[in-house]
Amino acid sequence: MEGASSNGVLSKLSLLEVEARSRGSHPQPQQSRVKELKAKVEALKTKRDQLKAELQTHKLLQRLRLSEVNHSEEEDMDEDSESSRVLRLMARHSELTDLLRAHRLIGGYEVVKTHQGKGVCMSIATGYEGVYLDTYNLEMDTNPKVRISRHNIPPFIPLDTLAEQSDLQTGIRTFLDTLSQHLNAYVGRRQQLKLMKEQHKSVEVMESNILCSMLVLMFTMPEQVAVLCLLDYKDLSRCLPTQVKLDCEDEKLTDSPQWKKSCSLLLELPVHRALTAMKKMGTVV
Amino acid sequence: MLKATLEKWDRLTPHQRQSVDFTLPKWVITQTLVTICEENGLTMKHITELEMMHVIENPNQGTWYSFQLLDPEDDAHSVELMLFKEQFKTHLRELMRNVSIKIKKHTDEAVWIRIAWGSGFSRPNHLKPTYVVHYLQSPYVFVRNLTSKLKPLLMQSLTLSTRHQAIKDANLSGPKLMAIRDLLMKQYQQSFPTNDASPLAKENQPGPIVNEQAEARASRRRMASEAFGKGAVPQLQSAVYKLETKYRDPSNRTMTERDEPFRCVVKYSSSNILESFRHCASAGIASTPVTPLLSSILLKGRNYFVITDNAPAAASQTRQADL
After folding, report:
1. Which residues constitute the domain of residue A65?
2. Residues from chain A contacting residue B186 (CB–CB below 8 Å)
3. Do the interacting molecules here have an ipTM over 0.90?
């Protein structure tokens, strides 16, 4: 019951009465209110000055970047050399960030800092014929040596060999370019196979492999002649085959000009397009 | 399951298939099938074909062990199926005369090998075949039901026929073939840091109610998915840590004073341990950043670790147990 009396309605009322009595003098609340408002004004003033300073810095950075592009004399900088150096660095930094963003937009790779600057993460985008396909990522430690720590690149892409060939410490750009080539080529070959299966249902895939580096197809020529076609993609950085072999039972056909034309089409065009062309020519049913 | 395989096998007439009553006890079904097969004049060759088909469709029995091929020769990348089949059969037959080998390529580019082992004097034992799965041009091989006596024979044939110089234990095993395959072939979603703005998945909390720990929670979730993947993870069922470290407990002097390491084995099991670990980390039960002991499962693609004092993260010692 004691607890109830300190929390009950009557106690609440008596508290309010005490408050009302202490608020006897009128000027007090007004004064405190005025103080409050003055403090707020100060805070807003400092914020305004801060924003003005930031705006100034940005304007100077813009001028710096433009001046570097136009190779013109620097604008009159009345600050001392320390802050002008900082501004130059900031200008360069924003330039590089924009460049990186642009590079990524055109389908190149993107670099992101991780682990408070102790590592980087590269993202390589792949695509074929204007369609964006998979994105592959590599996380690397930069201290003490450049080393790949985590990635989602499939094991049949020779990542270790490529890393050895171009020295990761100095030639990381070459490594990324070669890796991007290999990945794009693999994805391209895989996409070609998928498109071929969709567009040419009459062509049978006898053999393929997980790296899409070899393809054996069977299609029929007019008069029910079955042709076995072997496509070898020995150069893993390319989407087109390095060797084409066509085989059929009828010996005479192998010498015909149509045959040679088909071989060259399969070497020059992606497989789904080559088959479309061959169908148009009437070589393939 | 067997019913579906029998249909696919296509060596029995529909009438014969219908005459098999799958609600009867196992030995009755077996008897019926044996009679039907004898009627059709089917031989061991056909039965092994049926068994292989069944195993390919339902691989999640027994335990699959993974191996990694090392040091490929220059022409390893151009090994194609015909050549591999020929070479493997030749090499294995050179090492053991009485073997029955069946090689089949599955639609997902996997090469399945069924081996029934005999010995110098006896015919192949078809009741305990070894199954091997390999993806050409990838370095991994998955094996089920291989005794340690026959292991060197298989390993040598595989190494030679895939044009590599060595093979080692990959320290990853489990009952689900697809799970360990997805893990090693990196066919699961990983989470990487990017500059993209995170999607607007934030909860719309009304007015003054603010989640005090929103940042901490988001960071835990991020670290958990970086260590254990995003979305559906491969269904691993266990992780084993064999500890060979010295006992460390300041309150227990007798144990700490011993010179030899305190040997013990820590085993985590669950129907999906990666999912469990991920949940523990994002809920805050496991500390984040995730310890490398746990994140190595996905990072190094293994679930058997030997921890010694010199190398606290995974040591590359192979297991001694029988397969």
Report:
1. 57-69+83-105
2. 151-155
3. no
